[in-house]
């Protein structure tokens, strides 16, 4: 509001529509900048491809790999002890964030991994620390755009990327490189628009008066502008855009070095909002990871405030030394021309030094977040809860696909667990126990329906974005997988209903029939195990032969049972009611085998499977 009153100051000599025009131009420049950042990030992700997924996979191994004996030992959520390596997590967080240009997206993914139990809280804190370092690369990129005369090469750069062979080649990565260049050009154009939108301070004495007023507040202005930086980041939802605005305002003389540093600290705090918002639907562990992000940045800010002016003077001395200016140890003497460089150096210094110091206090951070988020009874395994995509949809396509893949792996584990209830139906001692097991199966069937619906919606939304050809193929395969996993759940429920109908009509199997169905159950269990292993293997490298062998064994045994069943009916070994119940059950088990092989085929891509195996694939009825 204070800035708005300044705009109406008599020295501005602006009418209402001049003010509206400036606001529209400024908002448009911010939008262009954010779009360029998004396009550049997506292009880089597509170029990275498998390496990006490899980096994300590193998160899953942070607490399980071999560590040095000197590494601290922390309790995990289950009470067991696991070693963690902070350096490994920090490097992973830095690399992922540098690649996707979004610490927020990295943190949201970390929350989902902790939510699912794949990443310990200690490992999550280390990755978050690394994400803060990774985001400093964006600051240097922005500084490059401000320091260079970008307008001379922006348009030729974009035209080159569009018209060059890169965009015309069939190679997916070549097009992604072209997209990256176009994104970089649009980002620089957005920076240029921002610079052109913010007027020269020398033409507006009211702003100079305001600066003098802020200076008279002394240290009291610093916490205020930390809050301003945090609020701006919350509103814009892009810390890189706030950093760009801060650097440009400093370069134009609107704010001093101390105020710019305060806003920079504030945007580090404001960027934690998205992860904490995503954690609202997470379990206790996920909430703790999000709180850890906030606590880490807050502690870093407090430590910096304690030695605020000495740090400013130190950064000033180093910046002047690097730039070739006369070195001084007084931030008030820092030339305006090199202030953007000083702020960028501070941003890097702030995140790197805080990470180095605070990485030794991860156990203390865990105690703090444990106090902030008291232990509560976690959701029962029989309750519906998505683990990886419950944190929301990010603008990072590769992370969305990775999250969906992990959710599908969780879906598979739930289906496998659901299948283990079936043998208990035969051995139930009384109706109460039997009905309780049927109730659990029915509940799981409803859960599989919801999981299929929500994962499919998530994948459909992902497919609507800008994906590479490989990404599009993977999404298409995943949609087929979740459809078949849901069908497996339906079929298990149908088997339970057949068992229930058999019990209610007092149909009894002899030991031979029960043994036959027990063997069929074992064959289906083997097929499910192969399917689950394939789902947990990198797509394109699965053991499809093992999947076909398991499905062939099911089909062969079904044929054997059918032949014996027809002979038994002819010989009158059992009546029609027994025969009908028996044939229905082994047919349903064989139907399960069909859905199970469909999953492995979808992972490997059905066309490839058909070309590779040809006649070796068994015919399904």
Structural write-up:
By secondary structure, this protein is mainly alpha-helical. The chain starts with a helix and ends in an 8-residue tail after the last helix. The chain has helices at residues 2-7, 16-48, 50-60, 86-100, 103-116, 121-134, 136-147, 154-163, 165-168, 172-197, 205-216, 221-236, 239-251, 257-270, 273-278, 284-306, 308-323, 339-358, 362-372, 397-419, 422-427, 431-463, 469-504, 511-535, 544-571, 576-604, 606-613; strands at 73-75, 81-83. It contains 27 helices and 2 strands. Helix 23 (469-504) runs antiparallel to helix 26 (576-604). The chain has a two-stranded antiparallel ribbon. Strand 1 and strand 2 form a beta hairpin. It has 2 domains: 2-372, no CATH class; 397-616, Phosphate transport system protein phou homolog 2, domain 2 (Methane Monooxygenase Hydroxylase, Chain G, domain 1).
Strand content: under 5%
> Which series of helices and strands comes N to C?
HHHEEHHHHHHHHHHHHHHHHHHHHHHHH
Report the mean per-residue pLDDT as an integer: 76
Main β sheet profile: 2 strands, antiparallel
- The geometry reads as elongated
Distance between the termini: 73 Å
Number of strands: 2
Number of helices: 27
Strands in their spatial order, largest beta sheet: 1-2
Measured on Cα atoms, how large is the radius of gyration?
30 Å
Structural class: mainly alpha
Q: Estimate the helix proportion, in percent.
A: over 70%
Poorly predicted sequence stretches spanning 5 or more consecutive residues: 1-14, 63-83, 609-621
Number of domains: 2
